[in-house]
Amino acid sequence: MKPDSRLEHAVETGRAVVGVxxxxxxxQQQRGQTLRQxxxxxxxxxxxxxxxxxxxxxxxxxxxxxxxxDPTAPAFAHLYFKASDSKECLxxxxxxxxxxxxxxxxxxxxxxxxxxxxxxxxxxxAAFGDRLRAIxxxxxxxxxxxxxxxSQRRRLAIAQLPEFLTTxxxxxxxxxxxxxxxxxxxxxxxxxxxxxLRWSVVRVQRLLSEVVGDxxxxxxxxxxxxxxxxxxxxxxxxxxxxxxAVVVVAHSQGSAVTHEALRTERSEGWALSDCRLxxxxxxxxxxxxxxALVESxxxxxxxxxxxxxxxxxxxxxxLFAVATIGLSPEARQYPSAWYDxxxxxVVIGLFALLMPSATAALLPISLRRLATRHQxxxxxxxxxxxxxxxxxxxxxxxxxxxPLLEPDFSSDHQGRDDGIAVTSMQVTNRRNPxxxxxxxxxNPDEFVTCLIATLAPLTGRLRSLIDPPxxxxxxxxxxxxxxxxxxxxxxxxxxxxxxxVCITDISALYGAQSSTQTSGMRLTLxxxxxxxxxxxxxxxxxxxxxxxxQEHLFLVSHQSSHRPFVGPxxxxxxxxxxxxxxxxxxxxxxxxxxxTVLAGSIVVxxxxxxxxxxxxxxxxxxxxxxxKDGELRRGSVWxxxxxxxGAALAWIAWVLMVAGSDDLGGLIGRLIVIDAAWxxxxxxxxxxxxxxxxxxxxxxxxxxxxxxxxxxxPFHIASGACTIVALACAYLSVRGFDEAxxxxxx
Length: 746
Known about the structure:
Elements: H1 5-13, E1 16-23, H2 33-50, E2 54-57, E3 76-83, E4 89-98, H3 109-138, H4 150-159, H5 161-192, H6 198-220, H7 222-240, E5 243-251, H8 253-267, E6 274-280, H9 284-296, H10 298-326, H11 329-333, H12 337-362, H13 367-373, E7 389-394, E8 423-427, H14 444-455, H15 463-466, H16 470-511, H17 515-557, H18 566-585, H19 588-616, H20 637-659, H21 664-690, H22 693-704, H23 707-712, H24 715-745
Parallel strand pairs: 1-4, 1-5, 5-6, 6-7, 7-8
Antiparallel strand pairs: 2-3, 3-4
């Protein structure tokens, strides 16, 4: 190897070649906790990648206490790379942690709760607003020459209808959850006023103040925010004085603090070392968007918050009405068609009234759009190249919720970041919105590899040993995406069988004639639950073994082994084995219901998996829907799929309503009729606009399959029509509301 001048200079002066500053995110991190986790993951990756040729000497690993000679030092750790044969030092790295968690006082819970009542649902639904806006605006360009013709835009709008409706239905689920969170915050305030119950909520209030209070301090308290920034600046200068190059790795809310610290350093003209920035799970875009909205559009923010509170209350009232009127034990003991019909009409009517307005309110709630419009607050002077700032986000991480800036879908501006030296990169952690934000360091073959690839150009002669080839990185990313997709399928199978057990349990309890029969059914269902849970746990255990072996194989051999048959085998096992257990020990009626529900659910799960691909990444049109030129493919298979699903659901509804005309099975059958009408409507739309003769015939068959159900239960015609009209109104209202929302917010 050629001598490295930077390393020789570092050895002579005691400076490190590379310094890495880890900045923690929101939460209750202790001093040195972030350093230990990050350094351990990085050193594990390096030791497996380098093998036995290089020895890692971790001197002063995770020194959390500042030495007496340097009392202002942060938690730090040295790492030396030495040749195994000659013990020659090849490189010297210095890790440090910027711990800003105690640089400000925790705000009062009363202030945090008052602020959280309005900001909490607004922040949660902002994720859906960004998704919906991307789907709605995609048809304007989608790779077409601008401006596209009217017919092209209409066909693309119809092609995007399925993923739009799927996201829309998810919004209807999240609205009551956001409202319940508001009620919980209010409840903690009221219970805290009671002396006898105050002890039960003091700990909860302290936890919320310490966690959510970080965000409150960033947005509402300039003094606290400046203290956080000053702490990061001080640690950054400490590391820069001891290293030739600095890489700042910031997570979550720490990315917003780090971003402001770097902007302040550049504006004051202080000379930093060769500095690069890596943000992952970053809240920079959200922070800039929130501050811009609160400072410049306070009235729009207040109106949107009030609208969300009202909409959440109405959705909660809807769920309460359904539970008390239609599913109460008293109503089922004395069955009445009037009760069933009124419950159904209440659900459909409120859904038709609330969903369009709720969807319209989501469009101005787009933090990424606000951040894009305020790009001057995102620019970092001095990071002139695209490698200067790398933003990494997970597929299901709700905090970044996609790339830093709103993408432009025009053909000549794909993925633009005008004026911002940033490269956005997507990784696959677990595809779990509850865990993706905290599992980046558990992703060695994508996230840690990307971190090492950023550090490698700064390490001199060590670069040829640790720099991962781009081909290997792409292969590892595709292999991991395949593995996590299999994990997601196992989760869906677990969710499906949980729903089957719950529905069967409720149906059995309603149909039981005596307490002895009820106890026997519960014991049988409990045994089935244990068998299903054991089977699904075994599938998850096998997946974890498979995942660890594939990660180790990539780090040791620098290659990825793609085995496409393992994932489908795990999915088939998770989906079929519990069914075989239930089928073997169940009665004849249970076997019929099981086969009916299982056949329809498999088809629906396959469809939702395809639609979810488009919802997850609206910037890339899904192949079966659109061609390379953005045109809807002739003879689209989607019209046939929708028609077949509509016919299958109509048959399932018919079986359930005939098998249980006056019990819960009849009500579930009536609900499935609406889904069947929805899919038949989509099939007719796609089939007759741009479909072949075969797809048109299948669409007609899907509509025809609903005729017997409608003739048997005439009120389904009105309820199905209301549902279709509600969905159509929501779709049209979003498109028409877009321009008004743009003028209102911006």
